[in-house]
Amino acid sequence: MTGPAIFLLLAGLGAIAWVSARARALRLQTVARASGRRDAVHSLPGYHGWYVALWTLIPAGIFLAIWANVAPGLVTQTVLADPAAQSLPADAFSRSALLGEARNIASGAQAAAFNPAAQALVEPYRAAIREYGIIGVVLALVLAFAGGAYAFTRVRPDFRARTRVERLVMATLLIASLLAIVTTLGIVVSLLWESIRFFSMVNPIDFLFGTKWSPQSAALGYGNKDAFGAVPLFWGTIFIGAIIAMIVAIPLGLMSAIYLTQYARPQVRKWMKPILEVLAGVPTVVYGYFAALTIAPALRDFAVAIGIHGASSESALAAGLVMGVMIIPFVSSMADDSIAAVPQSMRDGSLAMGATTSETIRKVLIPAALPGVVGGVLLAVSRAIGETMIVVMAAGLAANLTLNPFASVTTVTTQIVQLLTGDQEFDSAKTLAAFALGLVLFIVTLLLNIVALRVVKKYREAYE
Amino acid sequence: MMHEPQTLTPATETKMTARDVKVFYGDKQAIKGVSIDVDMDHVTAFIGPSGCGKSTFLRTLNRMNDTVASARVEGAITLDGEDIYAPSMDVVQLRARVGMVFQKPNPFPKSIYENIAYGPRIHGLAAGKADLDVIVEKSLRRAGLWDEVKDRLHDSGTALSGGQQQRLCIGRAIAVEPEVILMDEPCSALDPIATAKIEELIHELRGRYAIVIVTHNMQQAARVSQRTAFFHLGELVEYGVTSDIFTNPRQERTKDYITGRYG
Amino acid sequence: MMHEPQTLTPATETKMTARDVKVFYGDKQAIKGVSIDVDMDHVTAFIGPSGCGKSTFLRTLNRMNDTVASARVEGAITLDGEDIYAPSMDVVQLRARVGMVFQKPNPFPKSIYENIAYGPRIHGLAAGKADLDVIVEKSLRRAGLWDEVKDRLHDSGTALSGGQQQRLCIGRAIAVEPEVILMDEPCSALDPIATAKIEELIHELRGRYAIVIVTHNMQQAARVSQRTAFFHLGELVEYGVTSDIFTNPRQERTKDYITGRYG
Amino acid sequence: MTVERLPTDWKSDAMQKRIARRYAAERRFKFAGLFAVALSAAFLAFLLFTMLGNGLRGFTRTEIALQVDFPASPLLLDPANITDQGLAGANLPMVTSEAAKKALGPDADALIAPTAWTAVRNAIKADPRILGRTETVRLPASTAIDLAAKSKGTPEAEAAVARLKQQGVLSTGFNMGFLTGSDGTDPTQVGIWGAFKGSLLTMLVTLLLSFPVGVATALYLEEYARKNWMTDIIEVSINNLAAVPSIIFGLLGLSIFLNFLHLPRSAALVGGMTLALMTMPVIVIAGRNAIKSVPPSIRDAALGIGASPVQVVFQHVLPLALPGILTGTIIGMARALGETAPLLMIGMRAFIATPPGGISDPATVLPVQIFLWSDEVSKGFVEKTSAAIIVLLIFLLAMNGLAIYLRNKFEKRW
Amino acid sequence: GDQGAGGGAGATRDQIRAVGSSTVYPFATAVAELFVQGNPGMKSPIVESTGTGGGMKLFCAGVGAQYPDIADASRRMKKAEFEMCQQNGVKEIVEIQVGVDGLAFAESKKGPGFKLTPRIVYEALAANPYGKGPNKTQSWKDVDPSLPAIPISVFGPPSTSGTRDSLAELILEKGCQSDEAMKALKEKNEDEYKATCTRIREDGKYVDSGENDNLIVQKLGANPNALGIFGFSFLEENKDTLKDVPINGVEATYETVSSGQYPGARPLYIYVKKAHMQAVPGLQAYLNAFAANWDPDGVLTKRGMVASPEDVRKASGEAVKSLPTLDGAALK
Ligand SMILES: Nc1ncnc2c1ncn2[C@@H]1O[C@H](COP(=O)(O)OP(=O)(O)OP(=O)(O)O)[C@@H](O)[C@H]1O
Ligand SMILES: Nc1ncnc2c1ncn2[C@@H]1O[C@H](COP(=O)(O)OP(=O)(O)OP(=O)(O)O)[C@@H](O)[C@H]1O
Ligand SMILES: [Mg+2]
Ligand SMILES: [Mg+2]
Ligand SMILES: O=P([O-])([O-])[O-]
């Protein structure tokens, strides 16, 4: 029996359970209601229907889910016991490949055998699959009937079916929300696990405070001591994400927010706001391409023209500028929110004193909104330092500790990509270093976000 | 509707006049032709049920309605005979001359000193630091707050109690030497004791400014004002000497309102 | 503080009782031991200044405070002698028996018909479509709205005027055949004419339900209620026959409030 | 008591000058704001125009009309029995090359694309009767010719183009193959359908996973969760997940989905799962805001007549919040659609010349395809990269536009 | 696609997987494309460019559906790698040389016209030339008076790429051995010799340019004074902006590379797991497709690969048919 057929069968059973339980509840309730007591009837008939239907479906469904994982093993064992299996090659991969191929043909996932040897196994497979399929379906049906019958006996006017069904709904919602914790744990575990292995090879102090980043020398077997000093990466990350990008994004974002919220006509605002938001919606790989192919060469030419030494065509400036532009909508919407959160009465108060709009903004609104704006900027920074594609494509790989924005620097995210794709070497300190960098990045952005959210929240509360 | 101004005893000096003022929010008319005179050295109370247009009309008097994009004002309003909606009128200066106090105390999130100094600073009224100190002290004294805050002028204005904050806002308005002070339900967010203090303060300020106060509390209107204007559905129903309005309203609507038939 | 219940003329049938009820929001105590009896076939008005706990207390009567995470109720409240905070009490059924009307009319954004039909549907009160039609018509009639909306039952409930919306909400509450109806300032968002209609409706409903109404408007309390409870700072200061409270308050605080000294 | 001050003389010269200064400052400030908005918009315009300028050419290709004398050519093909297998072994590359040399001269191999013979194959497949006669087949030109014909090429190519033009065999037309093809090594032959389908499959997985979970989480947190340590942890987790750099999700996918669970590498399934983890918090946050914006009065109303909390949520709150939730979902999906870095980590960067058949097949997605093409040697890929960017941007803009439309349409003020 | 590894019936794969050298990548993908065209109905092989070293690590990790079938390499398999393979059960490996590549040195068309020798390259790039302390040379003139006084700036392949290994083996070691002491060191202390002769400076003069060979090409175009090191095909493809830099006076052309006259010439290989030949459909056909196109007039040379000499091609063609097992003893 195929998956969809079983599914349909169960769905049909559930529907029958629903309908019959509902009908029974309805009948019983009509009688009970005649007695006149309001609380003689607890739940609507539909809830009784759901209660019985769920009892029919859930145990059988759980069983089938387990069976789907257990049955293939049983099937394979049956097939291996078949005489046709005696001719299988000893080598595990070819053997399992043949078996898999036979299974695919038997189950219809594959049309014909690439390997003639597999053909012999198809029939035994088909038989075994059929056999275990029938067993599974029968067991599922028994469970469905048992569950449904048990629930059906409980249908009474005063039975709190609604409460039971709603409890299940709530449990489902709760489980869904727990997934966020599981994901977070997944991140922490996956980063921590590999990082611990890394730190067993490389001294954490050397990693965090070393100024020489050269995983290649580690790979060449010169030892890990001087190879994994991540300071140049941290510097590059800060230089691009927290300095250059912010120099672009903060003034432009803040002033855009001020203009659009305080000056622009509603019509202008209505159009400009989504247009600026597009800047945040452009994929970073597009920015990266743009930075690498259009901005970076132009900046380099400019730097050479004004006689700057060491100008690289993969410059911190190119990546930072483009990243700054990308962040503009982010800063402006945070600033927008913060300024909007300053109560209208502040603005009115200042205007009523005879202040002009710009005086009101500069002397009252911005100072009042400052914590919110700062929080927003911190969030923007955390986003900028986690940004990957722009720096991968435009910032370069040279781990330089430089203040020259026209020089090439590298960042944490660039190195993660570099270490894990392209020329990789698994299980060496070099690969594991990516996870250690990821861990640092995770912790830093986490802290930035926690601080920023705290600041923003506190500030919001101040005006509530 | 009454387009004729309702003037009172001729002995008083008229500070502001409004003639057939209409205010629209978009298509919706909130004030339907109001004419009124605001007298010097008196407290004028605006009363009326919620939404009748008291605040809207009050805000036309210092052009605060300019800040509402959809608002449009028709009719003539003068201050000392000068049309305040004339192009030559500078709004910034107008608002310094016609100060305003709001329903919810709204001190800036700055120090008490800075709150008071804000107006004089932006208008350039103080010659220097010493001058500013003088202005701050004088304004706080007039607002009846000096003794309570003189030792903590550099604490935040928002750390004061509600009543103190409201007096701080009054002091802030006074600091730019206004001629008229508009108050929109200045006590409705305050407790009875703070309310009594503000009412007392209004009494004291009366001799120096023309004061207009919007209030929901009819007893308060009776206590603090010498003139009362009753608004209803955007119209000025009745305007007169406070004691007359409360004891002997000429209009049925006024009477119904005062006796609590609606609102 | 008065922990003794203030019961009135023994002739009336008591529908709900509250004994030494305390309500906390987190650490903050909003109701400080209130004991009161709500009588059948009467309208009970709760009055008092803003924030004194009228709404809070009202919402303990149908456990609407359960929805406020920080709220905690102590003391005993009964409905027909049954403890409504007992674990065996099903809140959902309680709320059907103790209906509620809110300050701001809050019809569902659905048709007028669906607004009324919602309660009977979820409680399974109608046997079929025809039955439901009967319930809807009867409820709308009782709410005094039938004639105005009978031709547009499938228009949205939110398209009605404020007063009509409020009557729709009353009709919605009536549709599940409640025994008590709680109203939290049902007229404060309405104009005088709509207010008058609702007051009239309350008069008519009185014979069938126990009604509790919170109001800011003392004249309204005087007009519609037979019992008045005056709250102040979370305490029940005075409870009595309405005419007594207004003409002859026993407590100084009640008197000050009624004469507009504060609030 | 302090000195009395004279009433301010608002009309004095000094005062007037001061006012003028203040208004000038006002104008400057306003201009600065306008400048910021204009600069940001100008950057966007510049970006879009650059991409359009580079990319529009990618949608066209140059073709050379070639006479093929089928009866005379050494085809190993039975005209009565045309199969894919038969065509594959029919010596078509050689036949094509010979025909081209005959028509265009000895350097013909440099003029037509290396895979030009597939055009001949398709022509035969479309109408096997042409095997009996001499037919004109339009072959894609080589990259060098294509570039030279459309913009600027090497001097040799320019010369060849001039010659071909003179022969009248050169034409430029819309490149349907770009929309229907997959990755390849020859820029004249590549298409985005493979990557696009990969994106669709990935997004499908992402949506199916993140939407139900995200909405359920939002409902739980906003409507039911009591404040306790567990909901605190859930909230903190979600806020943090929304801010975790995307590449970290890639690391998670690599070490959990690939290395631990041994799910198929490079597959849309894993890509979708990774992106779902990223999108879920976005949906949760948008969902919570949408749910929050449903006025409490609606809940009160329903609770007040005895609706259970689950009824309140599913009969009132969720339907009213749905437009907001959908808006957030679209925005989250748009972000996922543009995401590159995490997918690089899980191997969705391989060369795959056929579109994926299902979610467990190796696949690549549009942004990764862009990244890969940007790295290609051949010059012809520059315009293809930009063209792929245009396709991606059109989709993103459409999605964002839809979100804005939904937001405006359903923006309710209660 | 892959099936869940439920029960004993293992995973199957109906697509070929190749990993490894970025130099071989364009040829492996071109063959993949031809394979798809020549075998309608088969799924496209999946080719990932991981660098030779990374590819070997993946390739040698084991036998089974989750491990690649083919490793592309721009140098011969190392003994250590072979041993890793053996350890992980990858016993039978077939080595096939598919072509030759030149390690090309190039500059912008506007460049000064460098003329280099292995010694010059070594002295300019070594971290520690001849073990005599850190490299202090700043400009090419510091290295050799015949060269212009331009700052040294070289874009080249990163470590673990086969190209980098080739650079070390074909150029740096040769240059290093111009010093007799180094030759002696090789006998005495292999490790120290390797360190001295192949370690590249890290002061920014040599820029590790990752995989993005295309960007190197672009950067050279933008920076006339820089030198780029990459595969011969990249040079071919960008003849319009770049020009060749002769080594020992020999230019990198098809002929010089093919004949081995060019010092930077190196063979390209693919390694195949014999155990996968049966299990993965189409693997043999893929190898056949390789063999059918590596002739001098084949498709691969059009893509910039240099065909192996005739005898090598013949041997390789045999290997594709008979699949001889690689003997570890032959490796270094
Ligand atoms: N910004 C605005 N836009 C549109 N309509 C407005 C605006 N402000 C006020 N209104 C409307 O104008 C009318 C008058 O409002 P106003 O605030 O002046 O009344 P009010 O008498 O001050 O009431 P309250 O006692 O509640 O403060 C009301 O109907 C109100 O809804
Ligand atoms: N959800 C809540 N959380 C915390 N405190 C609350 C909450 N709701 C009300 N309070 C506080 O409890 C007290 C009583 O509030 P309540 O709303 O019952 O007053 P009220 O008499 O109805 O006032 P009003 O006339 O303004 O409606 C007030 O101090 C209020 O601030
Ligand atoms: Mg008002
Ligand atoms: Mg209340
Ligand atoms: O990618 P490589 O060929 O340099 O190993």
UniProtKB/TrEMBL annotation, chain A:
Any one annotated GO CC term: plasma membrane
InterPro entries: MetI-like (IPR000515), MetI-like_sf (IPR035906), Phosphate_PstC (IPR011864), PstC_N (IPR022182)
Transmembrane domains' residue ranges: 6-26, 47-68, 132-152, 173-193, 233-254, 275-296, 316-343, 364-385, 432-456
Residue ranges occupied by any ABC transmembrane type-1 domain in the UniProt entry: 235-452
GO MF annotation: an example: phosphate transmembrane transporter activity
Broad class of where this protein is predominantly found: membrane
Keyword Nucleotide-binding among UniProt keywords: no
PROSITE patterns xrefs: ABC_TM1 (PS50928)
Protein family per UniProt: Belongs to the binding-protein-dependent transport system permease family. CysTW subfamily.
UniProt function note: Part of the binding-protein-dependent transport system for phosphate; probably responsible for the translocation of the substrate across the membrane.
The protein's name: Phosphate transport system permease protein
Organism: Sphingobium cloacae
TrEMBL record, chains B, C:
GO molecular function: ATP binding; ATP hydrolysis activity; phosphate transmembrane transporter activity
One Gene Ontology cellular component annotation held by this UniProt entry: membrane
GO biological process: phosphate ion transmembrane transport
Annotated SUPFAM superfamilies: P-loop containing nucleoside triphosphate hydrolases (SSF52540)
Span of domain ABC transporter: 16-258
InterPro entries hit by this protein: AAA+_ATPase, ABC_transporter-like_ATP-bd, ABC_transporter-like_CS, P-loop_NTPase, PstB-like
PROSITE patterns noted in UniProt: ABC_TRANSPORTER_1, ABC_TRANSPORTER_2
SMART domains: AAA
Pfam family, any one: ABC_tran
Keyword Nucleotide-binding applies: yes
Keywords: ATP-binding, Nucleotide-binding, Phosphate transport, Transport
Annotated NCBIfam families: 3a0107s01c2
PANTHER family: ABC TRANSPORTER I FAMILY MEMBER 17
Name of the protein this chain belongs to: Phosphate ABC transporter ATP-binding protein
Automatic annotation (TrEMBL), chain D:
Membrane topology: Multi-pass membrane protein
Keywords carried by this UniProt record: Cell membrane, Membrane, Transmembrane, Transmembrane helix, Transport
Domain ABC transmembrane type-1: 196-403
Major location category of this protein: membrane
GO CC field: plasma membrane
Transmembrane segments: 31-52, 200-221, 241-261, 268-287, 317-338, 385-406
One Pfam family in the UniProt entry: DUF3333
Subcellular localization(s) per the UniProt record: Cell inner membrane; Cell membrane
A biological-process GO annotation: phosphate ion transmembrane transport
SUPFAM superfamilies per record: MetI-like
Superkingdom to which the source organism belongs: Bacteria
Molecular function terms, GO-annotated: phosphate transmembrane transporter activity
Alphabetical list of InterPro entries matching this protein: DUF3333, MetI-like, MetI-like_sf, Phosphate_PstA
The family this protein is said to belong to: Belongs to the binding-protein-dependent transport system permease family. CysTW subfamily.
Protein name: Phosphate transport system permease protein PstA
